[in-house]
């Protein structure tokens, strides 16, 4: 089984990091086909970046379908272009925000999200509401770091994320933490150990959900909203 | 005052029709700058078409800003790319679905939407929920016509829209009708007369809301979510 | 086009101030017919005052209809008697809370309201929920000033409002401010400059919304809830 | 213990009927002080009638306080002026819609409401949402009868109410019926027998809730929203 | 009229305390049949304890039915097994959380809950949402005391509850307090006096609601969800 | 990795069927430990049966923990005792309703549920609301068959389920079907072929979700609500 894993931004090092996380968790016989959003913004910070990343993302999904991938993971916490990807795909398509937030509700009665920049906070709050988990999402917090700082060894970004998680535990009365950026995938284990709470990374969860759903033969419904795009 | 009116799809005849509707209602001294989504899908039918239309839409918004437009109307009932447009714009940016549905709640306790294809129904239902008017939206209905049938004189499309409105009145217990496609803008008066209910077209409402808000000096907040896109 | 602007309380100086704000923003040929709630409470502070102001408000609406007004603005942030006014009116009827809060959601992802007295906070919170914008309303705050202090030059009221706005910006993570009292209409520009955030006054927004909707021929639906009162 | 029972409309025969229902259910030592909305509309059919009935209702509440009533029941299913009454009262104030709908949720997982005229349907739907029981309210139905037809022996009104209840049972999948008009109070037993479902009349429920809450020493909170009206 | 009052936990001293509270408020001729959850956990602290207490609770309800009780009060603030009890009962069955929270919304625009242990907070938050009062519940707070500390004279528990109420008043902007544990029933009057806010104890409210509803002939609907358990 | 799969009812043939479904889909090295609710009701039809099945369910979970299971699936569509199980477990605990309904929202914009008896409909509606998917759940339908009819070859039960699915497709405008009973697990493939829509069985989905979450090291949060039961 091949699973297409698209990092919608243009930063290949982030794709590598995400793909490595994914490969560590998939079952035997599952191949991760990792793609980068070449020509898209270097990071997805807000609605504009998100919108500009979707055409390339869709190109990768179309190509993946031709290769016969079993499902798709969109590895950006804004869940860009999910509906459009679902129209193109036959297998399941899952964004990492949806995966992580719904997983959190299976493991805890409430969670907080820690993301990168303040401008992503309202975007994620709206996703929480769209996915029907807003009553379980205590707070969406930002560590006030640009996405790409997560790629730099000495930026202090990981410590800022850890400190924001510790603040969430103290102030939010939350039972789990959702990491609000694909670029934090490699920090998950360290953050769990440092903070003592379940830390949920959407990349690995989404990959396992796609693997699981595709494995039992479930794919995207083609009946109405997610039917193939109309020919004109 | 210039108002940028973008038809996100590639069909110029639809732009002309929409622009004519808009020009009929603006106040003295207001100029409608109408733009078409060249290279975008010929009609927006679902998430994929919507996503593919946004880059050109954003190009028009950026150009409009350079020309000093006072605000922007996005004339497609899926409200594509609104958040991204708001990041680029200084004046108000309003999509026709948000305008029409919020106007409906100022004029009636409930409304139904009549759109073109069934696949747009879930898209519009989600918009109604996002805008907080789902408890006042009785039903989203489709007249089962492709968007472009509205451009053909003899397609029978307008009669189908009228018949669906009459069904909504009979079955939904609604007090107003929202037209669920920019391409219906020229039918508004005829449909009102034929059906006897208030029929709300988002294009004219959105244009007047932008004109009104810009006229009193209000623009898009630049504080957090809708700040200019970050430079990387 | 005549627009009826009713200040539901008995304080004529407030009516003058509100009418002046309205007249500054209307288009050419639009006449503001301003009315005061003679015999009603001097200010609307809570449910009781609100209820007692409605009969005179309705008398003004009935008189306005006879004069052929195109629409009605109710200039009190509790939105008193809106449903009853809509039954009497043919044109649009908009309260300033509904106008300001819905406008805020077109310009920002979230807002806070700053009103006068603490007792108005739950009233406004319920309005936000009724209008479906509670998920975008960060907090309703009071500046702890009586409404009529806004009419006194040296009461320090305007400074208290400004300080509460600054607190909202610091603490609420909001992107815009809605002024929660008609009596603050004249402070809008000053508060915007002092605080650096978009400050939304419902009086001017409501007037432009009524002007816009009436201008394109839309009025209150007469089909069910807002039909003329039944004769007995 | 005295309980003030106000029929907000001007029809004394309806007050008598309601008071008789109330007196049948109160405990020993409880006196029902029944009042009519003299000068108010003869029936409350919509927002306008409701608004016009409140000043007299408030006068009765003020007088009741002077007489030392232990609590207040407002016997109109639109729950007019409840917030204003609560500001004036020290004991509990309960409207019959709130009482009946909340009681229904203690006895069944869902209910439908049967009211008089179609124009009251959206009013009651909004009350259900305000009271947080909209997810348990299957449907608000009207029997298409004017309120005062309930006062006429030969109007066929009671049969129409019964038939609408039977339709609700067949079509709504509801487990209980709430009577949506105070004027139906005397039909409760007959309707229960005729239809075989629990039929809930708000008058008796509200009276028992007021009696119960006042009996254990609970009254309206005077802390913020329901404090006595401000002196100016 | 007999009312069955079940304390679902195994602590008989708590049953005695609760029964005493109930007996003080019932009308003449009402007998409180008090039962303890023998063999169940000594206190209900979380989902596990709650689940383990239900079989004995149901046995008491079944026995009560045989004795002809008119209704049932379940005296634990987690409202354990309410649906199951309703299937067995003919009269009304009310849990103390539902009773107290719904009563609070009849007396105030908002309330906070003060419970015992932090682990009960999410349980009560979910109840508030299920009962549709989450928009009126400012905060669920814990006094950080085990349930059984309320049974010990010198545990300092009552002072901790009082202090938490005072914190709620200062920080939550709430207008009433709901006591989040049956074991606090005897503190109600003292807490009211000490804090100056309406303090609502679910035991007495639930008893009066059951007495009132049963008194007017209302019982649990037997139509669908709450029909007697199916024989297999 | 061992996954504990508990059928909460007492019908061993149903356990076998469910376990067979589960074993078909798990990855290499995953062992399904299947348990039956000995002494519990033969089928779970309503709140009473559900409550009576939980103590044995919890005993199996406790035993599973001692055996070191990696996670737990509760195979009854009422999701009985999930919170209590989560307190006892270290790994993930997922009920089949939560799994199936959340999976449905990853594959379609809307779904309908087809369950067995009408009395389960309100139970499932409440679960949908608790899980935040009520806005995507078009309708919960019953095929009007007792649960155990699914165990009898000639009961016609499977045809009734199929017919109800076909009705859902025609009438509900849904894009996927969720099977509302664990006993339908073996019908999934046949129902998909017969109806042409994605048919989602919670047993297999829940097993894969538990396998996936446990596989990446995620378990139930032990911080607050789901901490181990308190010792007294």
TrEMBL record, chains A, B, C, D, E, F:
Domain of life of the organism encoding this protein: Bacteria
EC category: isomerase
EC numbers for this chain: 5.1.99.5
InterPro entries for this protein: Asp/Glu/hydantoin_racemase (IPR015942), Hydantoin_racemase-like (IPR052186), Iso_Racemase_Enz_sf (IPR053714)
Catalysed reaction, written as an equation: a D-5-monosubstituted hydantoin = a L-5-monosubstituted hydantoin; D-5-benzylhydantoin = L-5-benzylhydantoin; D-5-isobutylhydantoin = L-5-isobutylhydantoin
GO molecular function, one term: hydantoin racemase activity
Pfam family, one: Asp_Glu_race
Family membership: Belongs to the HyuE racemase family.
Protein known as: Hydantoin racemase
Organism (species): Paracoccus sediminis
């Amino acid at each position: 089984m091949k699973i297409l894993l698209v990092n919608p931004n243009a930063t290949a090092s982030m794709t590598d990091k995400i793909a490595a996380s994914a490969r560590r968790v998939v079952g035997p016989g599952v191949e991760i086909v990792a793609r980068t959003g070449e020509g898209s913004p270097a990071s997805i910070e807000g609605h504009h970046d998100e919108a500009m990343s979707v055409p390339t993302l869709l190109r990768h999904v179309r190509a993946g379908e031709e290769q016969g991938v079993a499902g798709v993971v969109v590895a950006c916490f804004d869940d860009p272009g999910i509906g459009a990807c679902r129209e193109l795909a036959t297998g399941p398509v899952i964004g990492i925000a949806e995966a992580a937030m719904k997983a959190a509700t299976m493991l805890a009665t409430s969670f907080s999200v820690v993301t990168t920049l303040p401008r992503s906070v309202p975007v994620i709050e709206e996703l929480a509401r769209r996915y029907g988990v807003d009553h379980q999402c205590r707070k969406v917090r930002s560590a006030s770091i640009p996405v790409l700082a997560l790629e730099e060894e000495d930026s202090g970004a990981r410590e800022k994320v850890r400190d924001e998680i510790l603040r969430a535990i103290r102030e939010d009365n939350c039972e789990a933490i959702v990491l609000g950026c694909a670029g934090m995938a490699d920090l998950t284990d360290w953050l769990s150990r440092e903070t003592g709470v379940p830390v949920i990374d959407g990349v690995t969860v989404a990959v396992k959900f796609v693997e699981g759903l595709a494995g039992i033969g479930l794919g995207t419904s083609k009946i109405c909203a997610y039917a193939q795009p109309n020919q004109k």
